[in-house]
Amino acid sequence: MEETINRLVKEWKEDGFEIKTYSASLVVMETERLLIRRITRKDMDALLAIMGKPEVMYAWEHGFTKKDVRKWINRQLIRYRKDGFGYFAVILKESGALIGQAGLMNSTLNGNETVELGYILDNTYWHNGYGTEAARACLEYAFGELELKTVCCSIRPENVASIRVVERLGMTLCDNHTIIYNEKEMPHQIYVATNSKSYIL
C-alpha cells in the first residue's frame, strides 16, 4: 500500500499537482514569523490555556471555560463551512506554538452587513508585533483572496493596544455601536479599512 501511495504521489508531482499533508492543507496564510491555519478540535487544550485567561479575553470580561471554548471551536468550524473563513489559529513558526487567533467574521454592525476583523493573542506574546502581523495578513487576505471592498473592526474604546493595531493597518474610526453580552451593555468603536488603502507595519 505504502509503495503504491508513494508512486502515485511521485506521478502527481511530476504532473504538476501540489501534494500537501493534512497539516499543510489547513494553512490559510503565512507571514515572516507566523502560520495562520484553520482551527481543529485538537486545538482545545491550547486554546483553553489562552482563552481561559481573563486578561486575554478582556473584551468578554471573563476567561472562557472548557465548555465556552468547545462552543467557540464549533462556531469556527461552522463558519469555515458556511463562509470559508472565521477565526484562525496563529502559530509561531520558530516553535510551532499556538499563540492566539486572528480572522474574519460575517457580522452586522448598526444594521449593516459587513466582514469584521478579529484577533486574540496570548498575553505571553504581547509587545512583539505578532498581533499586528496576524491582523495585517488577515486584512490582505480579505482584500486579495476574498476581494472584499471593506473590512471593519469593533473595539472597546479603552482597549488602547488593540486600537494601535488597527491604526497601524491604516484603519480609521467611522462609527460606534453597543454590544449586549451577558445582559451588559458594552460600548464599542468601529474602525474601517477599504480595499484601496495600503497597509504599513
Describe this protein's structure.
This protein is of the alpha+beta class and 201 residues long. It has a domain at 26-149: Gcn5-related N-acetyltransferase (GNAT) (Aminopeptidase, 3-Layer(aba) Sandwich). 34% of the residues lie in helices and 32% in strands. It has helices at residues 2-14, 22-26, 44-51, 66-83, 130-144, 160-168, and strands at residues 27-30, 34-38, 87-92, 98-109, 112-121, 150-155, 172-181, 184-194. The strands form 2 sheets. A 5-stranded antiparallel β-sheet has the order 1-2-3-4-5, with helices on both faces. β3 (87-92) and β4 (98-109) form a beta hairpin. α3 (44-51) packs across α4. The chain is globular, with a radius of gyration of 18 Å. The N and C termini lie far apart (49 Å).
Count of alpha and pi helical runs: 6
Tell me the structural class: alpha+beta
Radius of gyration: 18 Å
Largest sheet: 5 strands, antiparallel
Instruction: Report the CATH C-level class of one domain.
Output: Alpha Beta
Query: Which residue ranges are poorly predicted, with pLDDT under 50 across at least 5 consecutive positions?
Result: none
Distance between the amino and carboxyl termini: 49 Å
Order of strands, widest sheet? 1-2-3-4-5
Strand element count? 8
Averaged pLDDT: 88
Please give the CATH architecture of one domain: 3-Layer(aba) Sandwich
Q: Give the amount of beta strand, in percent.
A: 25-35%
Fraction of helical residues:
25-40%
What name goes with the CATH superfamily of one domain? Gcn5-related N-acetyltransferase (GNAT)
Shape: globular
What letter string, H or E per element, gives the SSE order? Answer: HHEEHHEEEHEHEE
CATH topology of one domain: Aminopeptidase
